Amino acid sequence: MMFTKQLGKRNLHFSLFVFFYINFISCPIIVLSLFRRSNNNAPLTVGYINRDVRGGASEVDTDIKSTETGSILIKEVNETTAEEIISNKSASYLTFAASKVGDGSESDPDGLPLRFLNMQKGNREKAKLAFNATVAWREKHNVNTILSKPHPTFDICRQCFPIYVPGKDVAGNVILVQRPGKIDLKLAREHNVTEDDIILHYVYLVEYCWNILHPGPPDGVMTTIIDLKGLGLSTFRDTNSRNFVIKFVKTMSNHYPQRSYKTLIINAPSWITAAYKLLAIPFMRASTREKISFHYRGKKQDETLRKFLGDSMPKELLHDDKDEGAMPPIEENTIEEPGSNSTIEKQLRMFCKDIVVKSGGSMKC
User: Fold this and answer.
1) What average pLDDT score do residues 92-121 get?
2) CA 255, 261, 264 angle in degrees (round to 5)?
3) Is 266 helix (H, G, I), strand (E, B) or coil?
4) Which domains are assigned to the chain?
5) Which candidate in 27, 67, 93, 106 could, as Cys together with 72 as Cys, close a disulfide (CB 3.0–4.6 Å)?
C-alpha cells in the first residue's frame, strides 16, 4: 500500500502497461499457452524444401540439382547468399517458413523447432500448440511469401511506428530499435493504412532480418532497444494506441520466440525500477531477467548503448540529440550512418522498392 501511494495511481497504471509491453516481448510463454490446436497437416516451405509439420521425407524443388544425400542438399540450400536471393527475387527464392533446416525441427518427431520447446520449458504439448498456432498464423497472413509481395506502404508504415535496424552489435547480433512513444495512428488513418498493415510491416522487417540479412544460424538472436521517450499516460489512455500496442507485442512474442539476446529499455522514467521490481521480476525467469536492463536519459545511458552497440550506435538515441519529430524518410543519396538511415535500412528499402516497381506499382508516401 505504501509503495502504491508513493508511486501514484497514474504511474502504477502506466507501469503495468510498460511491463506488459516488455514481458510479452521477453516472456511469450504467458500467452502461448492459451492458443488452441491448429491443423497439423498444413505443408511448410523451407527455402526450396517442402516438408510436413510432423516431419518425414523431404520433397525437393525441381530447380535444385539432386545430390547423393539429403544433408548435402540441405547444406547447399542454406548457403544460398543474400545477394543471390535479392538478385533473383523469384517466389521460390523468397519463400520462408516457420521452421528451417538446422533449427532442430528436422530431427524432432513432431517437426518442432527447438526454440518452441525451449520457450515451453520442454513441455511438448504446449510447444506443439504454440508452433501449430504460428503455422496457422503464417498461412492466414501469407507470411511465408511476404518478402515476394509488393509492399508499397513501406515508407508510411515506418513513419507510423518507427522501428528500424541501425546495424549489428559488438557481438554480431542484429540490432532492432523500437520507439513506441512515436506511434502515430492518426497518420496511418490519413493514408488508409490499417493497424494490421503496420504490424505486417514489422513482420516484413523481421522476416528480412532472419532470412536475408542474417539467414543463419536458425537460432540467431537480436539486441532490442526499446526507447520509452514520448511514451506516457496519453498512450495508455488512448484506446486505439493501447489496443494496437497489445496486439503488436502479442503477435511478435507468439510467433518469434527465443530471439532475444539483450533488451535495453532506454529513456525510462526515474520511478520505473521500483515498479519493475515489484510488478515484473516476481513473474520472470532468471534467464529472462538477465537479458533486460533499464537505463535513464543521460551520459551513463549513452555509455551503455555504445558498449553494446559499438559502431552501430544511432545518434538519435543519445541523450543530447534534438530528436523531437517523426522518423525521417530514407534518403538514398545521403551519407550512410547508423540509425534510421543506416546501410541496412537503405538496402531493405531498395529491396522492397524493386519488387513494387517490378509489379507495376510505385512506393507511396
Assistant:
1) 90
2) 100
3) strand
4) 2-28+151-358 (3.40.525.10), 43-147 (no CATH)
5) 67
